[in-house]
Amino acid sequence: MDFLRYAEQSAALLNTEIADVDALVAHLTGREWLHSQCTDRDCMLLRKFQRELRPVFEAGEAGDVEGVVEGLNALMVRHPITPRIAHHDHEDLHMHVATKSASVAELLLGESLLGLATLVCDLGPTRLGVCSAAPCTNVFVDTSPNQSRRYCSDRCSSRANVAAYRARQKAVAGA
């Protein structure tokens, strides 16, 4: 299990509108083996999880270490994780979160929580953030070496930089 990738996927999950099974399938690009297992119940559970997880990212953005830790701990109690060592490739032993009988929602929840918990322990709780570009409210995982990420995407970063440049130009022209 690549914990960093799962932490980043948890942010992507939080930024996805899961209105129906088709939206969930679209979110699972690259994981086609899960598409046929997606149900309306998975969508409902994931929407609920999104509402529960968002405050953890908001706490990270605010520098609230206790909020991140307590939030993740509460979610791990509510959604127990069962890690397992995968040995389908004897050369590359790695961790998986749930057994084959887990639903798509249970699998995504487990991956998100274990990935975020590991990231928070390894890199710190302030690596979770909310995009600074108005009106965007997307979340992100900051893996930059100097913990300087402020935007969820290059698009939001560019848009904010252009807006700031135009504001400076307007101020210079008005002076």
TrEMBL record:
Pfam families (UniProt xref): ABATE (PF07336), zf-CGNR (PF11706)
Q: Which InterPro entries match?
A: ABATE, ABATE_dom_sf, Znf_CGNR
Superkingdom, taxonomy of origin: Bacteria
| Residue intervals of the Zinc finger CGNR domain | 127-169
**PANTHER family found in the cross-reference section:** BLL6575 PROTEIN
The protein's name in its UniProt record: CGNR zinc finger domain-containing protein
Give the source species: Nocardioides koreensis
